[in-house]
Amino acid sequence: MNKEQFWHIIEDSKRDSKNNIEMQEYLVKKTLALLPPEEEIAYTHIFHEFYDQVHNENVWQELANLFDYVSDDSFDYFCAWLISCGKTVYYAVLHNTKLIKEFVMDGHEWIEGEFFLR
Question: What is d(CA 35, CA 57) in angstroms, rounded to the nearest whole number?
Fold first, then answer.
């Protein structure tokens, strides 16, 4: 599995779940279950690579500026949720943390990113 295949799984699951993150998690797991074990492992490695990239002080600070306080766990959920949003949103925020406001101010769906950390 490469990064484009990873994003394909994320974006297909997002589309097919109609933005329901619990359903999206289910669809990702269902897709991964159909792949050979080494592909599932590669997916996990890629997920953690993207997670580690966005799990940084600049992103955390911007999120905290919007909500006054963001716990360690909430920030972890946000990072996972951001990946679940797909390649375009992920890279937009990674390159310009000010864009977080555009994606999270309509609600706190990002707290549900916990599902992607299971």
Answer: 35
